[in-house]
Amino acid sequence: MTEADLDGAALVHQATFVRQQSSKDWLQCNLNAAPRFLNFVAEKEGEIIGYIIWVQKSGFRPEAVLELEQLAVLPSAQGQGLGKKLILDSLPQVKQKLAEQGSTLKHVLVTTRADNFAQKLYQSTLGAEVETTISNLYSADEVLMIARNVGERI
């Protein structure tokens, strides 16, 4: 993701996370926080139809723990495998960025609503498993999922 992508990514954010506000400001903050935040977009015919944000947790470590902070796909493009493609296509780039700072990928954390169908995506693509449920965190119950030793597998 670059500055030029912010307007398009903000439209994806607004359409996907309808309870959230200030989409462009939110994404600008994430973009400004590189290399801690690693941001990628998916385009189709020059239009941004999805994005993914990875975050390095708890400092720059030799074995990095990442959070899949946010994955968004336009509702009209959902169900076509784009979420999986965003994960799998961005991970090698993330691993390269980590290698440049002397790190390897260890684990990936994901939080999502307990009723979000994306849990299946995170389980099948990353091998993430539900570790705990956090009651009434944002708009509903959230689950914390962890994919262990991802760097060795993907």
From TrEMBL:
<protein>
    <submittedName>
        <fullName>GNAT family N-acetyltransferase</fullName>
        <ecNumber>2.3.-.-</ecNumber>
    </submittedName>
</protein>
<dbReference type="Pfam" id="PF00583">
    <property type="entry name" value="Acetyltransf_1"/>
</dbReference>
<dbReference type="InterPro" id="IPR050276">
    <property type="entry name" value="MshD_Acetyltransferase"/>
</dbReference>
<keyword id="KW-0012">Acyltransferase</keyword>
<dbReference type="InterPro" id="IPR016181">
    <property type="entry name" value="Acyl_CoA_acyltransferase"/>
</dbReference>
<dbReference type="InterPro" id="IPR000182">
    <property type="entry name" value="GNAT_dom"/>
</dbReference>
<feature type="domain" description="N-acetyltransferase">
    <location>
        <begin position="1"/>
        <end position="150"/>
    </location>
</feature>
<dbReference type="GO" id="GO:0016746">
    <property type="term" value="F:acyltransferase activity"/>
</dbReference>
<keyword id="KW-0808">Transferase</keyword>
